[in-house]
Amino acid sequence: MVQPIQRAAVIGSGVMGAAIAAHLAGAGIHCLLLDLVPARLTEAEAKKGLTLEHPAVRNRLAVDAIARLKKTKPAPLYSEAFAARITPGNLEDDLPKLAGVDWIIEVVVERLDVKRELLGRIEKVWKPGTIVSSNTSGISINEMVASCGSEFKRHFLGTHFFNPPRYMKLLEIIPGETTDPEIVSYMHGFCERRLGKGVVVAKDTPNFIANRIGTYGLLVTLRNMMELGYTVEEVDAVTGPALGRPKSATFRTLDLVGLDTFVHVAANVHGQTAATAEKDVFSAPDVLGRMVDRGWIGEKQGQGFYKKVKTESGTQIQALRFDTMEYEPVRKVSSASLEAAKAVKGAGNKIKALLGTKDRYSELAWNTLKPVLLYSAHKLGEIADSIADIDNAMKWGFNWELGPFEVWDEIGLVKAAQRMEAEGDVLPEWVRVWIDAGHTSFYEQRNDQRFYAHGGAWSELETPAEHISLRRLKQQNKVVLSKPGASLIDIGDGVACLEFHSPNNAIGADILTMIQQSVEEVRRNYRGLVIANEGRHFCVGANVMLLLMEAQEEEWDEIDLIIRQFQNTMLTLKRLEKPVVAAPHQMTLGGGVEACLPADKIIFSAETYFGLVETGVGLIPAGGGCKEMALRSSRMAGSTDADLQAFVNSYFETIAMAKVSTSGHDTKRIGYMGPRDSVIINQDRRVYEAKMAVLEMDRAGYEPMEEERIRVVGEPGKAVMQLGAYTMQLGNYISDHDRLIANKLAHVLAGGNVPANSLVSEQYMLDLEREAFLSLCGEPKTQARMQHMLAKGKPLRN
Ligand code: NAD
After folding, report:
1. How confident is the model at residue 312 (pLDDT cuts 50, 70, 90)?
2. What's residue 156's pLDDT?
3. Which of 298, 381, 610, 686 has fewest C-beta within 10 Å?
4. Mutation test of ligand 1: which of 10, 13, 15, 253 has the most ligand atoms closer than 8 Å to its C-beta?
5. Where is the 3-hydroxyacyl-CoA dehydrogenase NAD binding domain (predicted)?
């Protein structure tokens, strides 16, 4: 029986160690963070009269690392408060404490001698049963514990997080020769479920899977560029979104990683591989050495392949020219093949379009893709057992949209193989045999099952039952109702899921109609409703374009009608006699928030950026957002003496300042998390968890929410909020227009011109919201804000 992980220790509080501790803390795992004892006092410590024996000095590295977590961007912590779950310590005084944890992760410098020595010390205090792992990027797991005892080795494995650990999905698990398979399987499940990671199992070979193939790809690209005479920006134009890869493409990625690190990673494979062709590729080209010598190692030093230069007219981006080693302003790159790729959607189509239009750039695309496809196929068996693990590693670790075998399928397995062979390349034996057996792809879809080429036969790709995929359910004809902007899907066991799929998932008229129809359908035929989708963002709000057009045409009755429809729809959803659970993810703004608020429970994905941001476009929430916050304040204050005004003030500030949560957990800090709401770290499980929550409420005997009277702060409370806005304006913190919006918001949240502690109805509050919203739509500065948001994608301060 593997001992379940409740407490952990992270050894090494550098870039990765501290961020891994932060991620564990976010998953509710308390951990120790240990590092070296400093050899010298800092000036500040000496001034305070501290000695090297003082605990504050001895724990300094870890203490400073925890403090840095709160300042690092993007935030490694889901919530600053979680830093309290990390206890700092040092490797001299606190080693015995390792006996009190269930998982020890080594995250110190990438040196075999250091890691070996440290693991030897850990073994001395190690309590049998405790899992021990290393976060090494490429050192051999077996060699690290070569001189440890067999029991310790049985509990030891590699757990390779990618940087930054909170945001990168990939986690490579590397079992050693003697790691207990039960521990490997436990860690696989634990890291997926509890830490939300996409886990692949790698073999103990240099740089494991993603860094092995990723580095190879970057090196062949660099070589192509030098040999065939392309520029830095030409290579980036081809190797970014046109190939289904991130915008940072090749050279922005390298600048971000740091050339020093990259050279080190390449050298690790170079030093350990015997094969000459491969060794050749991994010997970094001279130019990298020259750049490292000059300190041009990328963003950390302000210049690498690119550099930003201040000019009279602003900032200019320049790219390095290798012949002269001088920087020149970046030139725009365009060609028929690049345009063809831009014109189509989806990574597969882009790659086909790029390769299908013959020019210099499609040649470069093929010459950088081909070696990666071949290399991945050659390395199967050596670095990983399945093509799915290789594909997933590249998607989750390098943010590629398609893995190498998926790309090969898109181009056409046979077609690409023929071209490779015609160009003199040798296919790996297993690929040749696979094609000779009449296969035309590496993956195959049969009804709702997906198969992959594995050991000369088709093997089923197993998806855990908890990973409910709406896309797959739609392929299986589980759609109950559908409109261009939204669908209702049967997700099994008597639960339906309302999915938005309009552009940016913005809420327009047809989504509102679909919600109304879904409510009817669920009322008759289902046990409850989930609101979730698989878009990039859950919902960016209401359709601002539509509103702006109506406002510019002065169609006030039309706007009144739209808002009434929005409000009525949300109220209908709230009054549904069946449980409703919303599961938002990523950006959930304005109307998107209002679509979640009527639910009985919200299950936030850990990466949810949630907020009523209407003031950014010169408006206030009017789809029930203000009403719901007034209702929450009233509930929290209870019927008697608690300070209702304080709760209302806090929501006033949150909405007026358009605060957005920095994570699912952070919704608690800004007041959007209700008592029944929760957070889920693994994104793939959110629809499943929402469905389970619906079933649980149904099983327990669901009681629908009844109309509630809202106790409001009334006119005196409104004056308090408006005074706050006035002071902010006097201090020049907000503009005249901000104050106007704030005054309207105060009016609505206070319940209008009624005496303090009046009890009002939900409908009364909705009418106040709508009136204020309409009056703001008529303001030229509000229209200017809407226009700016549509054109620039960010708020205008006017
Ligand atoms: P880092 O340099 O930021 O931190 C290394 C830490 O090790 C420091 O806190 C240092 O005090 C400590 N240390 C140094 N010598 C030590 C010793 N003799 N005994 C104990 N501790 C010692 O490095 P990092 O980037 O956090 O990398 C740590 C590990 O994670 C390495 O194995 C690295 O390969 C791996 N890794 C790094 C990244 C990345 O992007 N930085 C990504 C994945 C894996």
Report:
1. confident
2. 98
3. 381
4. 15
5. 8-205
**15 alpha carbon to ligand 1 midpoint, in Å?**
7
State which of 10, 11, 16, 143 you would mutate to test the pocket of ligand 1, scoring each by most atoms of that ligand within 8 A of its C-beta. 16
Q: What distance in Å separates the CA atoms of residue 163 and residue 154, rounded to the nearest whole number?
A: 27
Query: Ligand 1 centroid vs 713 CA: distance in angstroms?
Result: 55
Tell which residue, 653, 652, 677, 682, has the closest CA to residue 666. 677
The DSSP bridge partners found for residue 539 are 588
Give the residue whose CA is nearest to atom 17 of ligand 1: 114
Ligand 1 centroid to 258 CA: how many Å?
15
Cβ–Cβ contacts within 10 Å for residue 651, how many? 23
Listed residue (174, 165, 164) closest to 138, CA to CA: 174
Distance CA 233, CA 319 (A): 7
- Tell me how far apart the alpha carbons of residues 451 and 454 are, in angstroms, rounded to a whole number: 9
Tell the residue nearest (CA) to atom 7 of ligand 1. 108
Q: Is the CB of 15 under 6 A from ligand 1?
A: yes
Residue 642 has a pLDDT of 66
Regarding the beta carbon of 272 and ligand 1, being less than 6 Å apart is answered no
Where are the extended beta strands (E) located within 162-234? 170-175, 198-201
Extract long-range pairs of 120-125: CB within 8 Å, 24+ residues apart: 120/147, 120/148, 121/91, 121/95, 122/11, 122/95, 122/98, 123/148, 123/149, 123/152, 124/95, 125/95, 125/96, 125/98, 125/99
Kindly report the protein residue whose alpha carbon is nearest to atom 1 of ligand 1.
14
**680: closest CA among 513, 479, 405, 467?**
467
DSSP 8-state assignment for residue 285: -
Tell me how far apart the alpha carbons of residues 427 and 425 are, in angstroms, rounded to a whole number. 6
pLDDT in tens, 54-89: 999 999 999 999 999 999 999 999 999 999 999 999
Count the residues in the chain.
798
- Band (pLDDT 50/70/90 cuts) for residue 697 is very high
Closest CA to 535 of 512, 504, 511: 504
